[in-house]
Amino acid sequence: MIPNCPQATDHTFLQKCHYHHGANPLYSKPKMPLPEFTIKHYAGKVTYQVSPAMAGLAAGAAVLLAVHKFLDKNHDQVRQDVLDLFVRSRTRVVAHLFSSHAPQAAPQRLGKSSSVTRLYKAHTVAAKFQQSLLDLVEKMERCNPLFVRCLKPNHKKEPGLFEPDVVMAQLRYSGVLETVRIRKEGFPVRLPFQGFIDRYCCLVALKHNLPANGDMCVSVLSRLCTVMPNMYRVGVSKLFLKEHLHQLLESMREHVLNLAALTLQRCFRGFFIKRRFRSLRHKIILLQSQARGYLAR
C-alpha cells in the first residue's frame, strides 16, 4: 500500500522510489530512462510500470505489470460508490451491515444560499482489516475461547462411514495418543480436597461437614480400598490420583448409587401398590355392605 502523497504524480513517486530504495538489493532501476522499477520477489523479478504507454519497450522483463494511474490504484481506499451501493441495498441485512459507512451530511452556507454537502471519510482496506482484527481480539479477551480439534471419519467425508485406521492415524499424528500416555504415567486426576470428600463420603460411614484437608482425604481413601504410596499424592489444595485408582473409586461410587436408586424405586413402587390396595379394599368392602343391606331389606 502506498501512503498518502498529496500533490504527487506517478513519475514523482517513481523518482522517490529510485532515491530511497536505489541501493536496496531487492530493488533495481531500469537501465534506460523508462517509467518503471523492478522488485525481486521470492518467486522472481517483477517489473512495475507506472505508465502503460511505453509497455512495449520493456518486453524483456520476466513479469511486467503496467498500471494506469499507479498512485490512485494503490491508495488501498474503499470505493465510496461501492459503499453507497451497499448502504442503499433493499436487503435489510446488507444495509444494516454497511450503515456505519453512510456518508455524513453537514450544512454549509455559501453566501445567501444554504446547501447540504456530504463529507466522505477515506477508508482503506488495510484500516478496515486492522479494525476488524482489533475487534476480534477484544472479543476474544472478553471471552474464554475453546478450540475443538475435529477429526475426519473418512477421506471422502461421507456421513455414516467410520474408518478406524483413518481416525487412529489422525490421533497419532496430532499427538493426542502421546498426550494421553504421558497423562497416564503421572497423576492426571486432580481433585480439590472438598470436592473429593463431597464425592466419595457416601462410600464410607462418616459424618457430614468433615474438614477438607489432605489427612482427611487420605483417611477416606484408605477406608475405601488398599492403596500404595505411589498411587496418589497430596498437594497444597488438591489430591492427585492415578487413572486406574480414579476408575476404581468411580466404579465403587456408581455401584453404591445404583443400589440407592434401586432402593428408592422399590420403596416408591411398594408405596404406590399399598395405596392402590387400600383403595381397592375400601371399595370392595363398601360394595359388599351395600349388597348385603339390599338383600336384607
Number of strands: 9
Instruction: Please state the oligomeric state of the protein chains shown.
Output: single chain
Our measurement of the CA-to-CA distance between the termini, rounded to an integer number of angstroms, reads: 114 Å
The level of helicity is 40-55%
Low-confidence stretches: 55-61, 112-120
- How many helical stretches? 10
String of helices and strands = HEEEEHHHEEHHHEHHEEH
Overall CATH class of one domain: Mainly Alpha
What name does the CATH topology of one domain carry? Single alpha-helices involved in coiled-coils or other helix-helix interfaces
Mean pLDDT: 81
Rg measurement, Å: 40 Å
Largest sheet: 4 strands, mixed
Class per helix and strand makeup: alpha+beta
CATH-derived architecture of one domain:
Up-down Bundle
% residues in beta strands: 5-15%
Shape: elongated
- Biggest sheet: strands side by side, in what order? 1-2-3-4
What does this molecule look like?
The protein is of the alpha+beta class and 297 residues long. Among the domains are: 64 residues, Up-down Bundle (Methane Monooxygenase Hydroxylase, Chain G, domain 1); 29 residues, no CATH class; 109 residues, Single alpha-helices involved in coiled-coils or other helix-helix interfaces, CATH 1.20.5.4820. The protein is 47% helix and 14% strand. The strands form three sheets. A four-stranded mixed sheet has the order 1-2-3-4. Strand 1 and strand 2 form a beta hairpin. Helix 8 packs parallel to helix 9. The longest helix is centred in the C-terminal third of the chain and has 54 residues.
